[in-house]
Amino acid sequence: MVRVIFISNDMVGEKVAGPGIRSLELARRLASRFEVALLGPERPPEGIAGAAMSLGSWRGADLSRELPAADVVVSQGIGWPMRRLVTSPAWQVIDLYDPLHLEETALRHARGGAWRAPETVHLQYDLLLRRGDFFLCASERQRDLWLGHLLAARRIDPPTYEGDPAARRLIDVVPFGLSETPPTRSSRPALKGAWPGIAAGDFVLLWNGGLWNWLDPVTAVRAAMEAAKVAPRLRLFFMGLKHPHPGVPEMRAAADALALARSLDPASRHLSFNHDWVPYERRADFLLDADLAVSLHHDTLEARFAFRTRLLDCLWAGLPPIATRGDALADLIAASGGGVAVPPGDVAAVRDAVLAAMAEPGRRAAQADALRRLAADFTWTRAAAPLVEWIERHVAAGSRSPRRLRAFSPAVITYFSRKAVEFTAERGLGYLVKKAIHQFKPDYDPDRT
Questions:
Q1: What CATH number is attached to the domain comprising 285?
Q2: What is the three-class DSSP state of 101?
Q3: Mean pLDDT calculated for residue range 38-46
């Protein structure tokens, strides 16, 4: 049987963010057809993925044990030792659903001071695009972005085009998915009558995700406070501030939203924050306890190519969102009649959309029905189908990847030279030496020694 390893760059556990959720759910769907192992930065807890797959950590000996037996490795290509990826004879599936070079640009810009391009991330993608056998993205709009990258990397040439003119065997859409099982409430309430400051009869506007620097929680705070002048029972709840991965720094967007909330609503009558992170299996309690969702972003390149997973949970729960127009999923939801799209940074538009929703419960019910119909197109089983088909077509015959790179090829040397400069500048020569050892001894963790 084909052996598939999923390598998650993010934590996989009770509290898990987008990359970890995606690795976990795709691994679950493939485990019914193939032998599957799921490796995270830490070993995922027993039982989280079911008995059909093995679990481990790519930071320890698990990687050395699993990698030689792998037929296919599915990863974002970051986090775990890059040398092992590019030189492995296993087929490499690179998941590009999260355009990190756009996020990194947004992060560096938001830090202030001298801005510099995320050159190392670009070099990393150059290497991944050379090495990968099959690439995943989350939408057709993202696919256009990555097709441009693949053309620039000379991965699409006349022989490739002749056998695959649509390039679907090179890169295909595997969107972030949804559970096939509708959400249900647990025995414990989450918000109404349960969270401090939120009463059973309040109208809850839910920000159901993290606060990253490319998002716009400040506009949500201002709009909610404007709407509360007319509708005093309105409550805006931010579902999670502390990312479950300890290496993710606090975002300036979160600090700005908290500071504004304290100045506009010092008694927390209308604004509430969860300073932790909601467990993955309990998110339904919060979604089903809310009346409306809000997802706002700035007008950036990140937004154009984003695929907001928080909006997928709105589909799953039938929770109508107010979302900034411009990203693929927000535009799709608005076109389906399942929610409202507003211009970037428009406080008045968000305020008016909230007040209109509060005044028209029948309209919210119709939007919820539209969302549930749309959700059927985004189940994890349907999302995983192109990946399953590619593995069965290319790997089941027992062949190995033809694209294995030499450890000292020019592309590899260029990438590691740039990383060496970056590590030395940011953390000193000692850390560079530790990272170099890590590339050859994956059970050695430079961040813990």
A1: 3.40.50.2000
A2: helix
A3: 89
